[in-house]
Amino acid sequence: MADTKQEYDGLGLVETQTVELFQSGFEFESGVRFGPITVAYETYGTLNEARDNAILVCHALSGGAHAAGWHEDQRKPGWWDTMIGPGKSFDTNKYFVVSSSCIGSCYGTSGPASIDPETGKPYGLRFPMVTIRDMVEVQKGLVDFLGIKSLLCVAGGSMGGMQVLEWTVSHPECVRSAIPIATTWRHSAQQIAFNEVARQAVIADPAWNQGDYYDSEGPRLGLAVGRMVGHITYLSDKGMEAKFGRRLRGKEKYGYDLSIDFEVESYLKHQGSSFVDRFDANSFLYVTKALDYFDLGERFENMTDAFRNAKCPFLVIAFSSDWLYPPYQNKSIAEFVRRAGGDATFCEISSDYGHDAFLLEYEQQASLITAFLERSQRPVHSHA
Asked: What are the tens digits of pLDDT across the range 319-338?
């Protein structure tokens, strides 16, 4: 990925747009009614006359609407810029790509940090808890607003992959192909456990103040530790060994104190502190909880039934060293789809990058996605 604009060849400068939807209120899965909902989104490419070339990309936990191109005030391009743009996997010369910040996020879509017009202060914990299904229903509202009746594809990794799966189950008539990457159909006990440790790090910070911290610096230490815990799960043992090993940071021997000795310690501390500068602690609590609530089969007799109405082809991509959402969990998604009579291709890419591979192994994903999207378009063109 290009880290500077001088090295960059892609979409160029882009802007985030916002729209207010659900004027009469949005009903959360919890039963709470709340609204209107502000949605932050970006679009890349051009929607064709038939309105049948739209692709929705869904972000992971810390992502947002800014998926590709540059913002003038930012040092790096969007989180999936390697995949979205002219001639890339999601080719903006062919496709109209839509990306939005999920509900509960802190990147422009309504969430705990949004201002309550009645008080003039952020909602904090008065904002309703969110689920993956809530995220998808808000996205559906955006897609309707944009005048798109059918999406050529819904794609995303990690939490984005969960949204992809929810789209195929909740709105099968709107999805013509699906690309869930490095994801799962429900959180396991281990996945919930890691998230709970991360949340407790935030909650235990006295500066969290029951979510009412917006007049202060907030729980910076707790959020940094929470991110450090999460970040370990994004890497792999082999990848960490290659990148850090037991190398010392800025010294030739141990300090024999509690200062930083190892490169890996320094790296995690940097990841934690940089995350605090760009993410809201309450949003972190809300979104990790949404991940833990996710269980696609919960409202069906079994997972085969869940995909019974999903008529679109699936491309399920996993990475060999991903131990957060390991290959077997991804493979089971493809198996459930096939048992339901559907079309699912499962691909496991060999990588040492762990869970982060879905953002880093873009070249290995490119040929798979390009061919899959071309195949997904054929039925539409045959009826033209």
From this structure: 999 999 999 999 999 999 99
Active site residue 158: yes
Q: Which of 158, 177, 236, 321 is catalytic?
A: 158
Q: What is the pTM of this model?
A: 0.94
- CATH of range 199-287; options 1.50.10.10, 3.40.50.11540, 1.10.1740.110, 3.30.390.50: 1.10.1740.110
The residue annotated as part of the active site, out of 292, 322, 352, 356, is 322
Q: Looking at domain 5-187+295-382, which CATH architecture does it have?
A: 3-Layer(aba) Sandwich (3.40)
Q: Of 171, 187, 231, 355, which residue is the catalytic one?
A: 355
Could you tell me the CA-to-CA distances from 334 to 137, 298, 315, 317, 344 in Å, in that order?
24, 18, 8, 10, 5
- Which residue ranges does the chain devote to CATH 3.40.50.1820? 5-187+295-382
Strands 115-116 and 121-122: antiparallel
**Is 322 among the catalytic positions?**
yes
Q: What is the pLDDT of residues 123-136, one digit of tens each?
A: 999 999 999 999 99
Q: Give the relative orientation of helices 281-293 and 189-203 as an angle to the nearest 10 degrees.
A: 160
